[in-house]
Specification:
Layout lengths: L8 H27 L2 E9 L2 E9 H4 L1 H19 L2 H27 L6 H23 L29 H10 L7
Antiparallel strand pairs: 1-2
Helix pairs in contact: 1-3, 1-4, 1-5, 3-4, 3-5, 4-5
């Protein structure tokens, strides 16, 4: 039994992994949502007709930001499936993507005629994504990897002349679990 103030390394690693993934996904998701909102409304005069209205989303003004949020969402999920150096490299990539998304939010804040709330949320989402990526790059070494049940195992060879499966349904299922073909006699 561990002391009340300490945590087992594997439990701490799982918790850190969960925090990093959630931070990446939440940041990318927030930025993705905010960049698809209406950032500006342009009114154009049309003579004696009522003025024309053109709503412009952040994705129309800065289309690369939306693409980067998709990369952030995919990368946040990929942190779970990777391990070792690849996970750390993915963390660096997510950090860079987060910084680029935050820059897009900053650009939106400086544009004239753009509402300030949506670019500010893109900026916040980009910073959260960058933080999750940096945390992954720095701390991923102690995090657990996916279980071995997700990895491909070597299939044992069947002895020639011996049927792959004896009689019975249970034997057929056991043969399938071993990687043998129960239809081969």
């Amino acid at each position: 039994m561990s002391a009340p103030g300490t945590t087992a390394p594997s439990a701490r690693g799982r918790r850190e992994l969960a925090y990093a993934v959630l931070l990446c996904l939440a940041g990318a998701g927030l930025a993705c949502w905010a960049v698809t909102r209406t950032w500006s409304v342009e009114m154009t005069a049309r003579g004696s007709l009522p003025p024309g209205r053109a709503d412009r989303t952040g994705a129309e003004l800065l289309p690369w930001v939306l693409a980067l949020t998709y990369v952030g969402l995919a990368g946040g999920g990929a942190v779970l499936a990777t391990r070792g150096r690849l996970r750390r490299l993915l963390g660096l990539l997510l950090g860079a993507v987060g910084v680029a998304v935050a820059v897009g939010g900053g650009i939106g804040l400086t544009e004239a005629g753009v509402s300030r709330q949506w670019p500010a949320l893109v900026l916040a989402g980009g910073l959260a994504l960058a933080s999750g990526g940096a945390f992954t790059a720095l701390r991923a070494a102690g995090w657990p990897a996916m279980g071995a049940r997700y990895e491909r195992r070597a299939v044992p060879a069947v002895e020639p002349g011996r049927p792959a499966v004896e009689r019975g349904t249970r034997d057929a299922w056991d043969a399938l679990d071993r990687g043998e073909d129960p239809t081969v006699s």
